[in-house]
């Protein structure tokens, strides 16, 4: 069993983030539980790459001196699986907001879907979603969005090394993506829908890998807390 000194010296915790939790909540919860378990006043805890509340999967949480390695983990490629729904869009590009537009899908074939992935592999330009935590002029983009304010967002260059369609079930397209730091899968869904001459939004997202770390080796927050006692 790990000691307080072990956590202060530095640990890398692989956590399977539950649906609706923010990454910040996960960090706060684990920090509080470690402090309570060992009766310590202060310990550094941070995560290596935000997951949206509506996403699940691998969250690397570092404690103590290992927080110095967070930037290294953040820079590693990430793998995601999930589902796009074609034929409709939302302002947030996912299920956080309601559908705002619908589009025809009758022209979309399986071949078109699979062939369109080629447009989104390699080095690509994408615009981050307006409903994101990126900052502009000292405010989070989602603050502008929720206030109904227009804001200019600059595109960024990201890299997608794998974009695989795993199964197609009606308007639900299941995928696997391996990509660089800074890639927004929600933006990929939105842009993919446009490329199909339709629309799309993200309905399911799970982060399965960060570098060589895999979600299969991660534990739930509840299991981590149980190990502390």
Q: Largest sheet, described in full? A: 9 strands, mixed
Total of helices: 7
| Rg of Cα set | 19 Å
Give the end-to-end Cα distance, rounded to a whole number of Å: 9 Å
Any idea what the shape is?
elongated
> Residue share in helices?
25-40%
Number of strands: 13
Q: Strand pairing plus helix content: what structural class?
A: alpha+beta
Low-confidence stretches: none
Q: What percentage of amino acids are in beta strands?
A: 25-35%
* Average pLDDT over all residues: 93
| Helix and strand element order | HEHEEHEEEHEEEHEEHEEH
Overview of the molecule:
This protein has 229 residues and is an alpha+beta fold. It contains 7 helices and 13 strands. Strands 1, 2, 3, 4, 7, 10, 11, 12 and 13 form a 9-stranded mixed beta sheet that branches. Helix 2 packs parallel to helix 7. 32% of the residues are buried. The model has no long low-confidence stretch (mean pLDDT 93).
Give the helices and strands, then pairings.
Layout: H1 4-9, E1 12-17, H2 23-38, E2 45-47, E3 56-63, H3 70-74, E4 78-86, E5 88-89, E6 101-102, H4 110-116, E7 122-126, E8 135-136, E9 139-140, H5 141-146, E10 156-169, E11 172-179, H6 185-195, E12 200-210, E13 213-214, H7 221-228
Parallel strand pairs: 3-12
Antiparallel strand pairs: 1-3, 2-3, 4-11, 4-12, 5-6, 7-10, 8-9, 10-11, 12-13
Please tag this protein with its features.
single chain, 229 residues, alpha+beta, nine-stranded mixed beta sheet, two-stranded antiparallel ribbon, 7 helices, 26% helix, 32% strand
């Amino acid at each position: 069993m790990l000691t307080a000194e072990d956590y202060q010296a530095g640990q890398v915790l692989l956590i399977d983030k539950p649906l609706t939790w923010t990454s910040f909540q996960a960090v706060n919860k684990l920090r509080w539980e470690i402090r309570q378990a060992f009766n310590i006043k202060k310990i550094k805890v941070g995560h290596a790459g935000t997951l949206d509340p509506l996403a699940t999967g691998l969250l690397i949480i570092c404690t103590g001196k290992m927080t110095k390695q967070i930037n290294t983990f953040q820079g590693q490629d990430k793998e995601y699986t999930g589902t796009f729904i074609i034929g409709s869009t939302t302002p947030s590009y996912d299920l956080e907001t309601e559908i705002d537009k619908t589009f025809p899908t009758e022209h979309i074939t399986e071949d078109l879907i699979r062939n369109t992935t080629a447009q989104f592999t390699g080095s690509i330009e994408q615009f981050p979603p307006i409903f994101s935590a990126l900052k502009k002029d000292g405010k989070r983009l989602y603050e502008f969005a929720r206030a109904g304010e227009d804001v200019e967002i600059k595109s960024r260059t990201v890299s997608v090394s794998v974009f695989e369609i795993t199964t197609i079930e009606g308007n639900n397209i299941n995928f696997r993506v391996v990509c660089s730091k800074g890639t927004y899968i929600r933006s990929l869904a939105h842009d993919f829908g446009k490329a199909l001459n339709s629309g799309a939004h993200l309905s399911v997202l799970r982060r399965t890998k960060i570098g060589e770390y895999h979600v299969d080796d991660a534990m739930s927050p509840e299991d981590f807390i149980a190990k502390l006692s």
